[in-house]
Specification:
single chain, Transcription Regulator spoIIAA, globular
Length: 119
């Protein structure tokens, strides 16, 4: 996993790899919370282009990050998602809370459109 700060968007970018299960979800949660506090970011984007599998622990992790950034006035973007993972996100109802897009730029555009302002 790799975490990058995108200062202009007040965003951290999390590039996840492999399977998102109980163990990796906890690691992602811990590292993103630490980076949000350290950087002052309010938005989190997850690059799932290299994620081969995600279970309900991943849904819980995304929901927890949503609650954190929502309290800060931010958004969650998940992009480059496999069909399997996208179906899981849809079935969970998270599509109503987070932005799911093909690319990071499309996600940022949607975030800016829904907020009505540029961050």
């Amino acid at each position: 996993m790799e975490i990058t700060l995108i200062p202009k968007q007040r965003m951290i970018l999390v590039r996840a790899t492999g399977e998102i299960d109980h163990h990796s979800s906890e690691a992602i949660r811990r590292l993103t919370e630490k980076e949000i506090r350290r950087s002052g970011a309010v938005n989190v984007a997850f690059d799932f282009g290299r994620v081969s599998f995600m279970d309900s622990s991943g849904i819980g992790m995304l929901l927890g990050r949503y609650k954190t950034v929502k309290a800060l006035g931010g958004s969650i973007i998940v992009y480059d998602v496999s069909q399997q993972v996208k179906r899981l996100i849809e079935m969970s109802g998270l599509m109503e809370l987070i932005i799911v897009s093909d690319t990071l730029q499309k996600g940022i555009n949607e975030m800016n459109r829904t907020k009505g302002v540029r961050i």
